[in-house]
Fold each of these.
Amino acid sequence: MNCLDPTQMPEGALLAYLEGEASPQIAAHLAHCSACRQAAVALRDTQVHIELLTLRAACPPVEALLGYQEALLAPAEAAVLATHLDHCAHCRAELAELTAASQERETLSLAERLIMMGRQLREAIRMPDPPHVPALAVRGAQPTHLLLYHAAPFQIVIAASPITGGTYWQIQGTLASGDDPIPQPALVSIFSAGQMQSEDQIDEFGYFHFDALLSGMYQLHIQLPALSIIIADMTIS
């Protein structure tokens, strides 16, 4: 068989060659024709690419993997992604790359990491301490420390009460935006030195709490459907 133009070799013949089912005439031709062998290799690469796209059609976006790696997803979403990772070697490899990259940027703040994820971010501003604790600001026993923050249109009240002699603290929080209900799902996480210490769901009335936190400096991350709010410096003592 003469091969003046490798595009004249039928694709079916190239596929048969790749699968080891080519006729003796086709096999003999490709054994001596580098142009057709290159065409067969290109066809194989195209097949692999199409198969990979098909396999990964149900894979989560990289933003979701990054959120999983940073422990920023809601529990239900994280559970679904964990199940996917159990069966997807491609996503496990991608997550490993994200973890390695995260270790190289440990000096980045939580806010910087959220911006890298493409989240709309708002940093809460500390407001002056009130002269007294509002009676309806928190549930349960009245706190000894009250911190107020503002991140338009939200107001955040953080109430801290000491337990076990003041070494550990109970935190009660309220997120409010006038009379509007809090959009769901809403998740709040508390960090110390870049590591998440605890998380809680914010209910529709804006309430959340953390138990048994040591005295120290913390960062708070509130994750709403369309917005992340950061309290970058919150001292509990």
Note: Strands lie at 121-123, 125-126, 145-151, 154-163, 168-176, 187-192, 195-201, 207-214, 216-224, 227-236.
Amino acid sequence: MPATGPLATLTDIVTSPTEAFRSLREKPSILFPLLLILTANVIIVLCYYNTVDFPWLVDTLVQTAIDRTGGDMSQEAQEQIRKAMGSMSPSVMAAINALSIAIILTLVLCLSALYFLIISAVTSDGFKFKNWLSLVSWCSVPTVFASLAALVNILISSNGQLSPYRMNPLSFTSLLSLDAGGQNTLASTLSNVDITTLWALVLLVMGYRQWTGRDLAGSAAIVLAPSVIIITCILLIA
């Protein structure tokens, strides 16, 4: 009899995804993967602000804001940004960012599940919101590896001057040595995408295909459509 429970599913989602999807279809679970992902990201934020050279970070973020306006930012505006950031301690910044990322990640997962629920309503496949939230949460678990890589990167940073855009060594910005701090919109977008993001998307395609019985092309089109639309809009608006 195969092992069951969140730890067994955690192992299966990495080593035997089809088995994990079969188990989740019968008994969807949400809390464990959601807490795992949120905890990993919150730890990264707290560790980063606990070790970073804070005055250097403020200067870096101000310079990034200047670069993204093409240098067209008044000295007064620069000082306002610098003053606003400088008025907060690293611990306050860490708390704000940790809370923000926890809320954003939860919303993204819920919106993804809602998207699949709408598709289910159209196709009448019978899956509910809980099913889809379980699937998208578990398929996002590989992103924890990116958090671990970022943690190692933070801990080995000797002088505390690690750019937030270089924090994740698995991001395409880091892997391709792109400057995400300037006006390069593509580089800025890629700073939020890493190889574990692609892993998660592949798992989601596999899971959707296994659950619904659709062909690979149709499953990929449905799963990837939101990401393609969002990235396209970002590039067109910038």
Note: The chain has one domain: 6-237.
Amino acid sequence: MRYQKPFLSIEQQIVQLEQRGLEIGDRLLATRALEQIGYYRLSAYWYAFREIRDNSRTDAFLAGARLQDAVSLYIFDKKLRLLVLDAIERIEISLRTDIALTVGVHGGWAHRDARFVHPRFNKPNRRGQIPFQEWMSRLDKCESRSRDEFVTHFRTKYTTERFLPVWMSVEVWELGLLSHFLGGMRHGDITAIGQRYGLSDAKLLPSWTRTFTFVRNVCAHHGRLWNRAMVDQPAFPRAGAIADFDHVVVSRPSQERL
């Protein structure tokens, strides 16, 4: 099927929305919203206002649906992204420190030593690749492109060292790189880190950081976070293990969307 929808001016967009049953309200404000935010981006917020027939959304809007409600959802989502980014930043920085302290006790470069990761992290996966080697390849690229002052100083002063010690290295890790390493840590190490956050199940923290990575990327690229389907759904503790999560554990929809 070819895409054949024509270009629509702002006024034509407003007329089309009116014809489909969306209450426009103040036309000047509607024009400004469509000019500054855009029809396509706003459509993700008025999608929930469209009628459902035969288990699918139609172009027609529910009675009483207003453009202002979609704009309000957009503004709410913008504020939500800022709050979530702030929370993830705190978690990310804390986890960097946790890794540096947990792994660094074995030596400055223990994060590059297969003895200090889980055995399965250093075995071929279904693609025939060794996850630990893939991770180190990503790490090398991450360190080599860093232009942070402390990295430049280290390279200038310690000319015989190819790599950064773990307590420096973690400061240039992307969240995805950090998440990947957490998933490859030894059981005792990841359990010790998880317990600092009240998590007794070793699989929870790596799972959650993968989800944090997805959510952070959505926020960083100004994507819609509200009502977003989770591509990489996190693991959840069993009911009763963490009281604050029980309402999510027993609700499948709550696990699948933000």
Note: Residues 10-65 form one domain.
